[in-house]
Write a structure and sequence with these properties.
Number of helices: 5
Shape: globular
Largest sheet: none
CATH architecture: Orthogonal Bundle
CATH class: Mainly Alpha
Helix content: 55-70%
Order of helices and strands: HHHHH
Radius of gyration: 21 Å
CATH topology: DNA polymerase, domain 1
Length: about 110
Protein backbone atom coordinates (compact mmCIF):
# COMPACT_ATOMS: atom_id res chain seq x y z
CA UNK A 1 0.00 0.00 0.00
CA UNK A 2 1.29 3.49 -0.93
CA UNK A 3 1.13 6.21 1.72
CA UNK A 4 1.31 9.81 0.47
CA UNK A 5 4.02 12.00 1.98
CA UNK A 6 3.06 15.54 2.91
CA UNK A 7 5.93 18.00 3.06
CA UNK A 8 5.82 21.24 4.97
CA UNK A 9 7.90 24.28 3.96
CA UNK A 10 10.64 23.46 6.47
CA UNK A 11 10.80 19.92 5.18
CA UNK A 12 11.55 21.03 1.61
CA UNK A 13 15.08 22.03 2.54
CA UNK A 14 15.69 18.68 4.21
CA UNK A 15 14.11 16.92 1.25
CA UNK A 16 16.46 18.67 -1.18
CA UNK A 17 19.43 17.62 0.94
CA UNK A 18 18.23 14.03 1.00
CA UNK A 19 17.78 14.07 -2.76
CA UNK A 20 21.31 15.50 -3.25
CA UNK A 21 19.95 18.58 -4.97
CA UNK A 22 22.85 20.99 -5.03
CA UNK A 23 22.40 24.70 -4.70
CA UNK A 24 24.93 27.16 -6.07
CA UNK A 25 27.45 28.16 -3.41
CA UNK A 26 27.57 31.88 -2.60
CA UNK A 27 29.93 33.88 -4.78
CA UNK A 28 33.22 35.09 -3.42
CA UNK A 29 33.52 38.73 -2.44
CA UNK A 30 35.57 39.93 -5.42
CA UNK A 31 33.28 38.06 -7.83
CA UNK A 32 30.33 39.93 -6.29
CA UNK A 33 32.22 43.19 -6.75
CA UNK A 34 32.89 42.43 -10.41
CA UNK A 35 29.27 41.42 -11.04
CA UNK A 36 27.86 44.66 -9.60
CA UNK A 37 30.40 46.83 -11.40
CA UNK A 38 29.51 45.12 -14.68
CA UNK A 39 25.80 45.60 -14.02
CA UNK A 40 26.50 49.31 -13.67
CA UNK A 41 28.38 49.25 -17.00
CA UNK A 42 31.60 50.63 -15.57
CA UNK A 43 34.68 50.29 -17.72
CA UNK A 44 36.95 47.29 -17.41
CA UNK A 45 39.75 49.56 -16.18
CA UNK A 46 37.52 50.93 -13.41
CA UNK A 47 36.60 47.39 -12.42
CA UNK A 48 40.23 46.36 -12.18
CA UNK A 49 41.16 49.48 -10.23
CA UNK A 50 38.38 48.96 -7.67
CA UNK A 51 39.27 45.30 -7.26
CA UNK A 52 42.96 46.18 -6.75
CA UNK A 53 42.12 48.77 -4.09
CA UNK A 54 39.80 46.32 -2.30
CA UNK A 55 42.53 43.67 -2.31
CA UNK A 56 45.07 46.18 -0.94
CA UNK A 57 42.60 47.20 1.77
CA UNK A 58 41.94 43.60 2.80
CA UNK A 59 45.63 42.66 2.77
CA UNK A 60 46.54 45.75 4.78
CA UNK A 61 44.21 44.50 7.51
CA UNK A 62 45.66 40.97 7.52
CA UNK A 63 42.96 39.45 5.31
CA UNK A 64 40.05 40.45 7.53
CA UNK A 65 36.70 40.44 5.80
CA UNK A 66 35.34 43.94 5.09
CA UNK A 67 32.07 43.14 6.87
CA UNK A 68 34.13 42.91 10.08
CA UNK A 69 35.67 46.35 9.53
CA UNK A 70 34.37 49.89 9.45
CA UNK A 71 35.32 53.55 9.66
CA UNK A 72 38.40 53.14 11.92
CA UNK A 73 39.93 50.61 9.51
CA UNK A 74 39.22 52.83 6.51
CA UNK A 75 40.84 55.78 8.26
CA UNK A 76 43.85 53.67 9.22
CA UNK A 77 44.27 52.46 5.62
CA UNK A 78 43.96 55.93 4.10
CA UNK A 79 46.30 57.43 6.69
CA UNK A 80 48.85 54.74 5.98
CA UNK A 81 48.69 55.55 2.26
CA UNK A 82 49.07 59.28 2.85
CA UNK A 83 51.79 59.19 5.50
CA UNK A 84 53.82 56.05 4.93
CA UNK A 85 52.91 55.29 1.34
CA UNK A 86 53.92 58.73 0.06
CA UNK A 87 51.23 58.50 -2.62
CA UNK A 88 50.16 61.44 -4.75
CA UNK A 89 47.00 63.41 -4.00
CA UNK A 90 45.23 61.88 -7.02
CA UNK A 91 46.03 58.39 -5.75
CA UNK A 92 44.70 59.30 -2.31
CA UNK A 93 41.45 60.49 -3.89
CA UNK A 94 41.18 57.29 -5.89
CA UNK A 95 41.89 55.16 -2.83
CA UNK A 96 39.28 57.12 -0.86
CA UNK A 97 36.55 56.40 -3.40
CA UNK A 98 37.02 52.62 -3.12
CA UNK A 99 35.92 52.10 0.51
CA UNK A 100 33.18 54.69 0.17
CA UNK A 101 31.76 52.90 -2.87
CA UNK A 102 32.41 49.48 -1.40
CA UNK A 103 30.58 50.12 1.86
CA UNK A 104 27.67 52.04 0.33
CA UNK A 105 26.93 49.35 -2.25
CA UNK A 106 27.54 46.55 0.29
CA UNK A 107 29.01 43.90 -1.94
CA UNK A 108 29.40 41.49 0.92
CA UNK A 109 26.47 39.59 2.44
Amino acid sequence: MFLPIILLKGDLLNFSIYCNIRQNPPKKLLDQVRDIIRLKHYSYRTEETYVQWIVRYILFHNKRHPKDMGVPEIEEFLTHLAVEGNVAAATQNQSFSMPFYFYTVKFYR
